[in-house]
Each structure stands twice: as structure tokens, then as C-alpha cells.
User: Fold this.
Amino acid sequence: METTLILLKPDTIERSLIGQVIARLEAKGLKITGLKMMQLDDAIIEEHYDFLMDKPFFPNIKKYMTRTPIVAIAAKGANAIATVRMLTGATNPVEALPGSIRGDLALSIDANIIHASDTSENAEIELNRFFKGTDIFTYNKLTDEVL
Assistant:
């Protein structure tokens, strides 16, 4: 079982899509083990997007990611990272397949609804960044016995 990080970006919150996105994750069999709304500051954005800081569009990312709170989610399941990436769809919604979160809900590459960890190493780093090693829970679901 893997645990991965998912961020519901400002446009998800502004468009009242939180429930729809979480429902898709749960319908796929993922267990939500951490969930919190938070307002991002410059420090966490610069750490999370450090690989983009030298790009000319970075100030727009910072402005976008701070305009409203985001929702951080820890999701656990078999092959959770690959499963969430498949559900999420391509970064550019124009290239995202219908049925994926971005393919169905995202409006543009600048408002693409969701972030999902891409590797187990990054998931561990990102989960620690957003959950600080706390607020991730272990519990049993009725469906755990059949999975």
C-alpha cells in the first residue's frame, strides 16, 4: 500500500468541486487518510515549486496558489501514486482524456484543478511538507476486507 499527496488547487475550491474530486478518489478505492484546508504562504510555495522558480511564469503560480486556500489530501491504496496520476489526467487539460479529473473539470493549464505526487520519493517529501508528519491516520474501512 502506498500513500500519496494530492492538492486541490484554488480553482477547485472557488468552483465548489472539492466533493466531486474526493468522490472520484474514494470511488476508485483510495482511502483518505489525511485531509486539511490550508492557506499557502510564499515559503511553502517556493519549496514545493522550487524547480520552477527561475521560470518567467513563477510569479503567476505564486499568485494563483495563494489567492484562496487549498485542500491537502493524503490518500492510501494499492499503487496509489499511479492510480491518482491516472485519475488526474495530463497536466494540460486540453491533453487530458475525458473521464479524468482534469479532462472533465479543469479549464486551462493555469487552472488545472489538482496536483498529485509523481513518485514515491516525492510523495514522501510532499506528505511531510504539507502534513508535517502528523494528521495522517490509520483506520479500517468496511471494504478493506475485500480489497
